[in-house]
Design a protein that fits this description.
Elements lengths: L7 E4 L9 E4 L5 E10 L3 E10 L5 E7 L9 E4 L2 E4 L5 E2 L6 E4 L5 E7 L2 E7 L1
Antiparallel strand pairs: 1-2, 2-3, 3-4, 4-5, 5-6, 6-7, 8-9, 9-10, 10-11
Length: 122
């Protein structure tokens, strides 16, 4: 299995949960948009939408934050719903976090030491 290297760029304001856009680099760029809204009386939801070039945006995930609006809550991706904590599990790799993908495989992610504003997934 060969390794893939993709560069992902973040553009947006100070809170990446609101209005930021991540642009994936591939043969066809993919745009991920994050929109956070307060749902009365006290729920905060971040919706992740995806748009391939020349197509309409459609939602792919929703993050329902904890009662204070910033603590970890529940994430819905497709028809799967699970605690957000499963996206930031401890990893045996130093300074990394781990998540489990829908296919059952585990992936680790961490900051790139030579470029601290970047992350790598492996």
């Amino acid at each position: 299995m060969s390794a893939f290297n993709f560069t992902i760029y973040f553009t947006g304001n100070d809170d990446p949960r609101d209005g930021g856009i991540v642009i994936g680099e591939d043969e066809r760029p993919v745009y991920f948009e994050f929109e956070t809204e307060l749902i009365p009386p006290a729920q905060t939801r971040t919706t992740v939408g995806v748009q391939h070039i020349y197509s309409d945006r459609h939602p792919v995930a929703a993050f329902d934050w904890g009662a204070d609006g910033t603590s970890l809550g529940v994430v819905t991706i497709g028809d799967r719903e699970f605690p957000m904590a499963l996206l930031v599990m401890s990893s045996p790799v130093p300074n990394a976090r781990r998540f489990q993908a829908a296919n059952g495989g585990f992936y680790d992610w961490r900051r790139v030491s030579r470029n601290p504003i970047s992350y790598e997934v492996f």
